[in-house]
Each structure stands twice: as C-alpha cells, then as structure tokens.
Design a protein that fits this description.
Layout: E1 8-17, E2 20-28, E3 35-46, H1 47-54, E4 72-73, E5 79-80, E6 85-91, E7 100-103, E8 110-114, E9 119-120, H2 133-146, E10 153-157, H3 161-170, E11 177-181, H4 187-194, E12 197-199, E13 208-213, H5 218-227, E14 228-236, E15 259-262, H6 278-288, E16 298-303, H7 307-316, E17 323-327
Parallel strand pairs: 10-11, 10-13, 11-12, 13-14, 14-15, 16-17
Antiparallel strand pairs: 1-2, 3-6, 3-8, 3-17, 4-5, 6-7, 7-9
Helix pairs in contact: 2-3, 2-6
Length: about 350
C-alpha cells in the first residue's frame, strides 16, 4: 500500500551522453489536485527515435519539436526521453485509482501526471500489448494523412515497427492491392502473421495510388517514387534525424506530378485536425489493440534494471527488436499499521 500524501521514490532512465544511459533515483512529491500517481507495469522502446536520442543525433533545429510530452532535460543530454508507458493508477481523483492506463511518459517506475495525460486501457487489451498504443497512434495519423480510398493500390515500404503497423491497419481497408515491401526476406513471416502480402523491392508492383515510406533509407524513398503512379502520393513517415538524403527530383518526377508529403505524429493530421484531438487519437489507437495479432510486434522483454544495457545492445545491433518491452517489478510498500 502507498501512504497518501507522502513523498514517493522513483527511478528513471536518462541518456547522459552519446551512447551512454543510466538509471537515476529521484523523489516524487504527493500528487496535487487533478493529478495521478502511476506505477509502471511495462514500457516499450521505440527503437528508431530513441536510438537517435541515445546517439545524440537530434538536430538542434528541431530539438523543441522532437521533445517527448513529459521529457525532462534537453537534447543532446542529459535527457529523460521515452513515450510508451503502461501502468496502474495508485493514487488519483475520483475513480482513477486502480485503472490501467497508457501514458506518453519516459522509462520510469513511478510518475505523477495530470489525469488528462492518461488514456484508459480497455479491459480487452492486455497491459503488455498496450505499450504499442503510441506506435498505433503514429500509424493512425499517417493513414489520416494518406487518406486511402476504396479500391486503391497501396505499397508500404519498410517492414519495421511503424511500417508493419501501418500495413496491419491498412489490411482492414477495402483496397485493390496492398504490399509490404522490404529488402529482408526474413520479414516475409512477419508480413504473413499480419495477413499482408510481402515482396522484395525489385518485385513490388508499380502504379500505386499511395506509397507509404517507413524504411528510413534513401533507397527506400527512391523506390517509393518509382512505385507511385502518375499524380500519386508518397507519404514519408521515416525520420532521418541528421542524415542527408538525396532524391532524383529530375527524371520524370515533375512530368508525373508526384507528391511527397511528410507525416509526423506531433500534431493531428490536417485532414482530421478540426474534428479530432490527440486524446481522441490515443483512445482510438488503444482500442484497436484488442486484436491479438499485435503481439507479433512485441519481440523481446527485459527487466527495468537492465535497461541501460538493453539500449546499448539495440544501438550496437547485438539485439534485434521491433518493440522491446521493459518489465517493472512490483514494489511492496510497508504497512501503515503499528506493531504493538
């Protein structure tokens, strides 16, 4: 049991230098009016963005835009960064205590946030799977940006976490064709688990109405332009951080009137911005996770106290993962009863 009103100790993961992370202890104050104390059950490592932070590659010109909602510190370091956290409300207003919630919070075993920052996890969504809420939200925003229509021909390039998530959601659309494209033949089994056709870039079919690019590679973006049909749309969901990308914008780019549009989850896609809030988008995302097939995105797990080493292994390539889950221990509070 917790002791309401008493300070609570917490431990958080910080990036403290290029390729260097550590766990830091801190004291939390008692939650104020409208705030909740959350005990973390699981968090997920969003490998692409978090490794950019870990390797000190966030460009200064977008440091403000790339800050996570509850980030502490500033880029490049020290910074407390992350945004896939699921926990139990231990203390809060009204009927919040006891609810399982998702929050865009860094890797930390306990934290205090306004209840408006919490998304309730439905009873039919397991807490572990709910760490994917933030990634589903990214995919939802990308599809709002793309606006697929009945009978469209669509290719998703890059069968990673985001690309796979986009392809999974597109599988529910009445499309004429959907292909998940990747250079790695081992991704075929992943695509089959999602119920989506897989193909190598050389074998992907052209004349697409929409190509959604998620490979974060120059070659993938070039292939996206080749696969898009005349006046087709390429939706760029990759983030290249500080890497330079060169594109063939001569050749037939203008003659075919192609469009390349960026999608970024920091704001609700323009097509829905006036009718949906970010909170609406999160509620939709977590509700979609009632499908057990999403478990295929959870490709490993480690205890919280091993997190610094896990991030290093992900950075080195020694550990492969789509979404690696961090498991938090249950900490027992001392009883408030007095022994006589």
């Amino acid at each position: 049991m917790i002791i309401p009103g008493e300070p609570t100790a917490a431990t958080a993961y910080w990036t403290v230098g290029p390729e260097k992370g550590e766990l830091r202890r801190e004291d939390l104050p008692a939650p104020g009016p409208g705030e909740a104390l959350v005990r973390t059950l699981y968090s997920g490592i969003s490998k692409g963005t978090e490794l950019v932070v870990y390797n000190a590659r966030v460009p200064a010109c977008v440091a403000g835009e790339m800050a996570a909602p509850h980030q502490e510190g500033t880029f490049p370091s020290p910074v407390k960064f992350g945004y896939l956290s699921v926990g139990i409300v231990e203390e809060g207003p009204g009927d919040w205590p006891g609810k399982t919630v998702f929050c865009l919070y860094p890797h930390q075993d306990r934290y205090i946030v306004p209840v408006e920052s919490l998304t309730v996890v439905p009873d039919d969504v397991p807490a572990r799977r709910a760490v994917l809420t933030g990634t589903v939200e990214t995919a939802v925003n990308g599809l709002w940006e793309a606006g697929p229509r009945l009978g469209d021909r669509v290719a998703v390039i890059g069968a990673g976490l985001v690309g796979g998530m986009v392809a999974k959601l597109l599988g529910a659309f009445p499309l004429a064709r959907l292909q998940l494209v990747d250079v790695d033949p081992a991704k075929r089994a992943f695509a089959e688990a999602l119920g989506v056709e897989f193909c190598h870039p050389d074998d992907a079919l052209p004349d697409c109405d929409i190509v959604i690019h998620c490979s974060a590679s120059q070659e993938g973006l070039e292939r996206s332009l080749q696969l898009a049909g005349d006046e087709g749309d390429v939706i760029e969901m990759s983030w290249y951080a500080d890497r330079k990308v060169t594109l063939p914008l001569g050749e037939d780019f203008h003659a075919r009137r192609l469009s390349v549009r960026a999608s970024q989850v920091g704001v609700v896609a323009r097509a829905r911005r006036h009718r949906r809030t970010a909170a609406d988008r999160l509620r939709l995302a977590v509700a979609l996770l009632n499908d057990p097939v999403f478990d295929v995105f959870l490709t490993g797990a480690s205890p919280f106290d091993e997190l610094p080493g896990v991030v290093q292994q992900l950075s080195d390539g020694a550990l492969g993962a789509l979404c690696h889950v961090i498991e938090y221990p249950v900490i027992e509070y001392p009883s408030t009863e007095t022994t006589r």
